[in-house]
Amino acid sequence: MKKELIEILCQKSFKYSKEPVFKLVSGKMSQFYVNCKPTTLSPRGMFLVGHLVFDEIKELNVTGVGGLTFGADPIATATAFASELKSRPIKAFSIRKTQKDHGIVKWIEGDMSPGEQVVIIDDVATTGGSTIKAIERARSEGLDVVKAVILVDRQEGGLENIRKHVEDVSAIISRDELIRQWSSDNDS
């Protein structure tokens, strides 16, 4: 499953250039760009992501999986769906970028209650900033964050930064794995 997901990410979500031409959120320029949404929103990509993330967290005693909208949303939904297929249901939730200012004022959407153990997910980690923000917001709503799972680690210190906020952090796919696949696909 992982090999197939790497192939799909290289086809739909990964761009590489010998010169740093891609501007990141930080303003820094990079040789590569990863936008996981074309993959995580595709039927096969969603299937693979859901199963791979579920396999990463299935041994934990967690009831929810989610992260900062929008990057985490398709991953959380796919994971929740896969968890039900495997008879080990884990709920999906979404963390807002801006706090709701009407009705019940809260950061989190989904059927979650304070005290529940959860996994925070993100599609890509560079510095880890959005994942850390999600961890902080989940905790402010009373959730117990026990792990963070990143779909693609750009290998630029993000996992190490996230680890300062939650000890158990893992990535499904690394930048090096994407570059190896991309190079293999483009050498012909």
What would your notes on this structure say?
By secondary structure, this protein is α/β, with parallel strands linked by helices. The protein has a single domain, classed as 3-Layer(aba) Sandwich (Rossmann fold), CATH 3.40.50. Helices cover 39% and strands 25% of the residues. Strand 9, helix 6 and strand 10 form a beta-alpha-beta unit. Helix 1 packs across helix 3 and helix 1 crosses helix 7. It is globular and about 50 Å long. It starts with a helix and ends with a helix.
Spell out the key features of this protein.
188 residues; alpha/beta; Rossmann fold; six-stranded mixed β-sheet; two-stranded antiparallel sheet; 7 helices; 39% helix; globular; magnesium ion binding; Or_phspho_trans_dom
Biggest sheet strand order reads 7-6-5-8-9-10
Distance between the termini: 24 Å
Multimerization state: single chain
Secondary structural class:
alpha/beta
| Helical residues, percent | 25-40%
Instruction: State the shape.
Output: globular
Q: Strand-residue fraction?
A: 25-35%
Tell me the layout of helices and strands.
Elements: H1 2-12, E1 14-16, E2 22-23, E3 29-30, E4 32-34, H2 37-40, H3 43-57, E5 64-68, H4 73-85, E6 91-95, E7 108-109, E8 117-125, H5 129-140, E9 144-153, H6 158-163, E10 169-174, H7 175-186
Parallel strand pairs: 5-6, 5-8, 8-9, 9-10
Antiparallel strand pairs: 1-4, 2-3, 6-7
Pfam families: Pribosyltran
Binding site for 5-phospho-alpha-D-ribose 1-diphosphate: 96-97, 100, 102, 122-130
EC number: 2.4.2.10
